[in-house]
């Protein structure tokens, strides 16, 4: 299940790889159930009396720490929907098993440039019906650089889609070839300091990744990407296990030094 020569050429040229229908319908059903079990359990614990602390991020969006995870709540004022949980693989064995699944680990060996790969982090992304929010242009690299420095360049992510991904329900949109320039220029006018400056991107190279449930999108830390909002009546859920060369610490085991983002362009 390693990358074929054609896939490797596309990876080097475009910075991403799409494999359709990697997981069977039964696999997808089981992971959907696991995702909803995780979400329900996390929400119950996060909303109880004495739950973990919450705060506002620089952009004003709510984040909370509970269940040994960071929980990002949906952006709409007063929303009770969770948009993201990280990490999440400790919350269900089926999610943890993705880090040992050759359908993911084999191509990830090529993606990170190591014969032995290990977990870095894992997210559960929940673009709920109607209210699932967008996420603007960004690279993963800055978010990870502030924790692991230049080792962030050898982290790659697989988005495992648990629902069909379409233009209307929150599909991921990538800027093909954007990885080749390294760290993208950040937008100095937005409060988080992590987002890419869209005015400096080649938007003509944007590709919308529309795929059926069970498909996988793989990309490295330097690929610029975004996701659109979900305005449909169905959910667009996905699991995002991120891999790194074996022998390195996981993201949640190292200090997060947000101020280091200012070292980047």
Main pleated-sheet profile: 9 strands, antiparallel
CATH class: Mainly Beta
The CATH homologous superfamily is named: q2cbj1_9rhob like domain
Q: What series of H and E elements makes up the topology? A: HEHEEEEHHEEHEEEEEE
> What is the spatial order of strands in the main beta sheet?
1-11-8-13-6-5-4-3-2
> Which stretches of 5+ consecutive residues score pLDDT under 50?
none
Taken as a percent bin, the fraction of beta residues is 25-35%
**Which structural class do you get from the secondary structure elements?**
alpha+beta
Which architecture per CATH? Sandwich
Could you tell me the number of beta strands? Answer: 13
Tell me roughly what share of residues is in helical segments.
Answer: 10-25%
Summed up, the domain count is 1
Report on the architecture of this protein.
- With 265 residues, the protein is α+β, with helices and mostly antiparallel strands.
- The protein has a single domain (5-32, 83-263), classed as Sandwich (Jelly Rolls).
- The protein has five helices and 13 strands.
- The chain has helices at 5-14, 25-46, 93-96, 102-112, 141-148; strands at 16-19, 54-56, 62-66, 69-73, 82-86, 117-127, 135-138, 156-161, 172-175, 206-209, 216-220, 225-227, 236-245.
- Strand 4 and strand 5 form a beta hairpin.
- 41% of the residues are buried.
- The mean pLDDT is 96.
């Amino acid at each position: 299940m390693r990358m074929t020569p054609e896939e490797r050429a596309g990876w080097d040229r475009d910075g991403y790889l799409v494999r359709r229908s990697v997981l069977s319908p039964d696999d997808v059903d089981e992971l959907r159930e696991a995702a909803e079990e995780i979400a329900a359990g996390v929400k119950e614990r996060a909303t109880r009396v004495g739950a973990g602390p919450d705060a506002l991020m620089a952009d004003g969006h709510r984040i909370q720490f509970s269940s040994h995870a960071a929980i990002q709540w949906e952006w709409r004022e007063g929303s009770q929907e969770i948009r993201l949980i990280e990490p999440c693989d400790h919350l269900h064995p089926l999610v943890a098993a993705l880090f040992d699944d050759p359908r993911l680990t084999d191509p990830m060996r090529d993606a990170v440039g190591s014969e032995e790969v290990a977990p870095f982090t894992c997210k559960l992304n929940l673009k709920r019906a109607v209210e699932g929010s967008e996420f603007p242009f960004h690279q993963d690299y800055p978010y990870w650089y502030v924790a692991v420095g230049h080792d962030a360049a050898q982290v790659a992510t697989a988005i495992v889609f648990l629902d069909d991904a379409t233009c209307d329900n929150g599909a991921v949109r990538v800027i093909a070839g954007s990885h080749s320039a390294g760290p993208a220029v950040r937008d100095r006018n937005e409060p988080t300091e992590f987002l890419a400056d869209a005015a400096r991107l080649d938007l003509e190279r944007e590709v919308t990744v529309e795929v059926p449930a069970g498909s996988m999108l793989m990309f490295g830390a330097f690929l610029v990407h975004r996701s659109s909002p979900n305005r449909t009546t169905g959910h667009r859920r996905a699991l995002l296990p991120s891999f790194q060369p074996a022998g390195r610490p996981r993201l949640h085991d190292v200090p997060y030094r947000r101020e280091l983002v200012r070292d980047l362009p």
